[in-house]
Amino acid sequence: MTIDLESFPPEPWCVRETRLRPDLLAQTESIFALANGHLGLRGNLDEGEPRVLSGTYLNGLYESYPLMYGERGFGFAEDGQAVVNVTDGKLIRLLVEDAPFDIHRGTLEHHERTLDFRTGILTREVRWRSEAGHAVRVTSRRLVSFADRSIAAISYEVEALEEPLRVAIQSNLHANQEDRPEGADPRAGKALGDVLDSLLHLDHGLRVVLAHRTKRSQITLAAGMEHVIAAEGDVMTLTQSEPDLGRVTLALALRPGRPVRLTKLLAYHWSAHQSVDWLRDQVDASLESALAQGFDVLAERQRAYLDDYWERADVELDGDPEVQQALRFAQFHLLQASARAETRAIAAKGLTGPGYDGHAFWDTEAFVLPVLIHTLPHAARDALRWRYRILPLATERAQQLGLKGAAMPWRTIHGEECSGYWPAGTAAFHINADIAYAVERYVAATGDEDFLREEGIALLVQSARLWMHLGHFDPDGHFHIHGVTGPDEYSALVDDNLFTNLMAARNLAAAADAALRFRSEAAKLGVVPTEVQSWQRAADAVYVPFDERLGIHAQDQDFLAHDVWDFEGTRPDQYPLLLHFPYFELYRKQVIKQADLVLALHLCGDRFTYEEKQRAFEHYESLTVRDSSLSAATQAVVAAEVGHVELAYDYLAEAALMDIHDLNHNTQDGVHIASLAGAIIAATAGLGGMREFDHKLEFRPRLPRDVSRLAFSVLQRGSRLRVEVRRDEATYTIREGDALTISHYGETLEVAPGVPQTRPIEPEEDRPPVSQPPNCEPKIRREREH
After folding, report:
1. Integer distance in angstroms from the first to the last C-alpha of the chain?
2. Is the entire prediction scored with pTM above 0.70?
């Protein structure tokens, strides 16, 4: 269902819903979700119904379940893991005289919700008239604190509009809520049912604390709510608790112009090791801290946090209000997914929904961290520290598979492999190189040598050992890696996937460099000189498949020999192909789910000439169907580089509007964190032309006709570089820190504080248009044309 611009107008600093669309309830629950990387609340209506998915999530809190196979195989993953919908504290219900506030009954005279990116507050304003004619105004404000990672707060205000009214407000804390049954879409989350066993329920004054433990993973959580009432006249209160429900009810008489304001404070703590008593005490302490601040102080601190963030992270794009809004929406949700994750994973859907079971994939290191490295480097470091923390499990997994080094899980929450499908899961070993790439990029951008010495080197070394075991040298001295799956999941178990080979080479070279620089740390990992030499030899000799007949690089050794997919015979309603065709049929054809070789053109761009990039991009464009939200951003970056700037902008818009327009029809399960990060990459690396090779920033900016100005900041080695691109020129300014040496269209520039550097943009090359498979043009372009 498309989200229309009348109901959701493009605004620069918020997403606003001007009327309630019940048909879009599932999507808006994701779009209006609030999170801080530790705690996430879906954007449900305050009263809790109607709803599609209730959704309260704690990063890392999962339930395990046995993975079922028709026929088991050695090395198959044993258990799945799924994020748990924990105790819901968002619920606030209202009774006006004898009528419950219900959008399906009475008359909803006004409804507006606004998610403000500058304040981090979700505001809802409602005017409702009961069937008996009693009118009230309800205003709620909701936040999940960036400053206090365990705290959420809601301000709920009710006003009688025309006459005195008696009202009752019920504030609930509810565990084991029932949601929709499990569907057929493999991208959606698993329906777990009631997985929380009650451990305690306590109430005192206007406070309730509930504690539960997951049945199989044995993780304990405690959730609590506290209340502050501001009202004129007497207020009757009742506090109750039972195993899965806590409730505070207040009743009072309202006069017009004299609203009641209820402040609801929530606290969540969980642990796989601490006792329930410990967690209960943490909840009480957090609630006391929140009480001492109150909603207004929490809101002030939220605004201050975001002011600092936007100063460093904002991407300004003049000329297209819709895409400008989407880029800020993207940056806001990236922050929400990562800010307080603190050595927990950044999941594919963040904490906005149960899609993909709440798992983290390679998306994090390949798409999300390259953005965070230059905007929120501490969050990037914490995400890499999570990978370091699960390294023992990855080493154990490699041993189980008979491999050396570490085999990072394709999808996981806790660290164990949870992919039940080997060809598109375990065989995608490139995740090791993606993590190594992020380590290398993080250290280059921040100069954090301590991280490299203490944690990064272990990730590089154990991944390098995996590649040496997976690969082999042929008689001619080439290093091959066979039987793997690259980013394109429609081509599985292939030999010499070019992306995998080049990323592995980069991993091997980085590991060798780190081992030579930090010899004592490398020795502790058992590294010997001959091992380093073998890494260097393999990195230099990695095989790069090239098709002489077509004059292009091959996605893998055999891809270009396959029959081409019957695109003309594929109906529009048969996309995504994975939901309508067996994988066997996909694997033996030339059809690309998402950018694969084209991603190599971006991340390993220094390994190709400009002409090679042009030929390869234009060829693979005709085979790529983009059944993954990860593809558009990469195609945008390379399209801009090789002279297809208007096409690049179409792809940028697709990546940015993936969730606001629900382009992949699964925003209901949570927003697409990597696609949103990809939109930022498409802006900065695509239109901004930013690359980082040999620890130096390079820029080749180019703007499409609809954009008159692009501006963004880059944190590099403690300095903040401001890049401002206009139609004919680009200006580089140091806003904080020391001078930086950069490159503009190959010219070396020394940018010193207080001395902006402005250079002209080279004339655009006139390239003939390229074509995509039928019905696979950029989605935004198709929408506008139809």
Report:
1. 15
2. yes
